[in-house]
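FW: tagging you since you asked about this chain on Friday. Here's the raw sequence from the shared folder, copied in full. Didn't touch anything.
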Amino acid sequence: MRKIAANLIFPISGPPVKNGYLILSDEGELLEVCGGSETLREISGLEYYSGILIPGFVNVHCHLELSHLKGKFEAGKGLASFLENVPKLREAPESEIQGAIQQALRYMWSRGINGLGDVINSPHTLNFKANSPVKSHSFIELFSLPNQSNQSVLNKGNVLYEAFKQQKLSASLAPHSFYGTPTKLINLILDGLSVPQNLSIHYKEHPKESNHASTEKLRLLLQHPMVNQLLLVHNINMAPECIQDLRNLPDEEKQKIFIALCPNSNLYIENKLPPVNLLQKSGFPICLGTDSLASNGQLSVFEEIKTLLLQFPELTFIEVLSWATLNGAWALGFEKQLGSFESGKKPGVLLVEAFDFKKQTLTAESTVTRLV
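HL: got it, structure written out here
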């Protein structure tokens, strides 16, 4: 059993606790969040840290299998150039691909990530996820391929899905995007759903995605009874009228939507950010992702938080922290295990140092360290 205390604890599921402490089992299960005490140092076996305690992060959007492409793309060349060059550059020796995946997954754990939503096109990540403390959901991405029928693409996706299920790893088939996945293939994906699934799709990242057409296609997914939740990823071209279209959807469809932001990747590829201030006011839950090392210098949700707070000063740390933790857990179906300090969960415990207690926010010098 461990008792861990700090100046301030952010449970996420409730207000911050000053001079409180956490009680955890040897297996990392949270047993209790204890209220503020002026006599903390008198508690037997207490570990006390200067800073704040937060739950582990949930990275809802990544492409681990592209980790070997770090540094291969010049920044600021735009999405079209990036998409054109990924197929050309992703081919590499198996040992290089596997080594980069292993290193990236270890790095994420060391930087406080407990939950992961990972987009895949191959079985490269399977064994690493099966043996990692990071709890993952794999979105098996399907899109149109030259000289391959929609049914053939679906069949290959189903083979990958079965491989992950055999390892008892969470997975689902998901369309890449509305500009890259034809409607017939989307319908095939939906027709094959026999159990409720959480899906993901790159959304409003490409100029080809016109407002009306993409909203109508979106409803194909939202109206399906086996679609639990739907992550809309990037949203860099989300205009005010697009947001209003989403808000006008029936409640049973709206409640499935989660907005995923990957700000550092957006800046790397296009030197542009989504309209975060509008999305914040939209009423849809927001969560955070890193995207891949092909378009990001590090797989760190903490750095994504820093970027958002720097670029959008009106945001508060406690709100963005909820995006990076509990909202992400909900989006991936991990809310019973991750995302907040609640009894029975194993959310991880992170220490943030160099925190600005007066302004209740991060500083440029803030760091994060895993304690549990």
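FW: The first strand starts at residue 2 and ends at 9.
HL: agreed, and The chain has a mean pLDDT of 95.
FW: great, closing this out.
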